[in-house]
Amino acid sequence: MKYFNKISAVIIVLIASVIFIANMLFTHCQKVNNADRPWQLDINRICHDIEEDGEADVSDYDYIIAVVKKGDADDFYSTEKDYSVREINGELYRIEYRVTQNVGNERRKIMNFAFAFIALIILLAMLYIRIRLIQPFHKFTNVPYKLSKGELTAPLKEEKSRYFGKFVWGVNMLRENIIKQKEAEIEMLREKQTMLLSISHDIKTPLSAIKLYAKALSKGLYSEKEKQLEAALSINAKADEIEKYVTELTKTAGDDLLSLDVDNGEFYLSEILNDVIAYYNDRLEMNKTDFIIADYNDCILKGDASRLNEVMQNIMENALKYGDGERISIDFSDDEDCRLITFSNTGCTLPDDELLYIFDSFRRGSNAGDNPGSGLGLYICRQLMRKMDGEVFAEIEDGEMKVTIVARKA
């Protein structure tokens, strides 16, 4: 706001300076013209007209005020006005004139009026911008900070001007999503705690039985082989029971990881693809990476547009991270009612025997090196595509990594 006020002050000073300089230049031009005594030209012209026609209309001249014949005035030589006496056709005429051009003064007024009008328009526009744009937006400057601190109770009020309608709606949606995510996290933690307590209680029973059997065997309480075999089988059964609980625990943890919301609908492939291309075009150009997009026929796809965009970006990030930066390409093909979108990058160093595991959670290839990552990117891609009734798979061909998205057509 302070910066805008400074800019406004500078603009006002500049406008005032322009008006002042224009008037000074105009005055200077008039002085230069007056140095040539331009009224003398008008005096000579009117004298010629009177000599020819016997009279003349002073309104036709810029500097002539009046023409008085000597016989028509008693005070012929006594006047405060500038004049020149000329003899025309044997009679004396007093030709009164002004030393400034009336048209010039009118032009000055028009010029100043035009400057004033332009200045008024500029000031009104700046005032409008201040009231309708700067001041409302100034109210939003602390919103990201408050959201980062967890202040989520008060939603933003919509502005009547509607300039920030979509922005306010987006911030309120973000706020509501953060609240929902927090509630979901709290509920998930509560369920996990309940589940852990339940499983830990359930595990105690088979664990106690295993300990009893083990203690009995260690003390030689079972002398008969049949009893020993029965104890061993019981220990194995109880171990299987514990393994079942551990599997259930692992599955539940995996289910939590799969909580990826998908809002399926219909959209054009070009809408998503154009966003991805626009996002990566400049970046790849700076890296001097060839970015080749094959020709394709646009089509309507089924799924979640924003989620498919996320999948494409994850694949592109992997191509940038693990490729050699020489070339990235996108190709298209069709298979029955599906559109196949294949992302290829040169410089693949992933061993063939690790290809089967790259879509597993927390699994990173041996070629990851020092590149940052969690091992969840491709895992999330597969889960999202499956929720959209699609698929994603990868293959290595001629030293290139090829990741193909299978999306359903509408």
Please provide a written account of the structure:
It is a single chain. The chain is built from 9 helices and 10 strands. The protein is an alpha+beta fold. The strands form 3 sheets. A 5-stranded mixed sheet has the order 5-7-8-10-9. Strand 7 (327-335) and strand 8 form a beta hairpin. Helix 1 packs antiparallel against helix 3 (102-139), helix 5 (165-218) runs antiparallel to helix 6 (225-257) and helix 7 runs parallel beside helix 8 (305-322). The longest helix is centred in the middle third of the chain and has 54 residues, at 165-218. The radius of gyration is 45 Å and the shape is elongated.
SSE layout:
Layout: H1 2-35, H2 39-53, E1 64-69, E2 83-88, E3 91-97, H3 102-139, H4 143-148, H5 165-218, H6 225-257, E4 265-268, H7 269-286, E5 290-293, E6 300-303, H8 305-322, E7 327-335, E8 338-346, H9 377-387, E9 391-397, E10 400-408
Parallel strand pairs: 5-7
Antiparallel strand pairs: 1-3, 2-3, 4-6, 7-8, 8-10, 9-10
Helix pairs in contact: 1-3, 5-6, 7-8, 8-9
Major sheet characteristics? 5 strands, mixed
The appropriate CATH architecture of the largest domain is 2-Layer Sandwich
Count of discrete alpha- or pi-helical segments spanning 4 or more residues: 9
Q: Roughly what percent helix?
A: 55-70%
Tag the structure with descriptive keywords:
55% helix, 5-stranded mixed sheet, 410 residues, 9 helices, alpha+beta, Heat Shock Protein 90, Helix Hairpins
Can I get a quick summary?
The chain is an alpha+beta fold. The protein contains nine helices and ten strands.
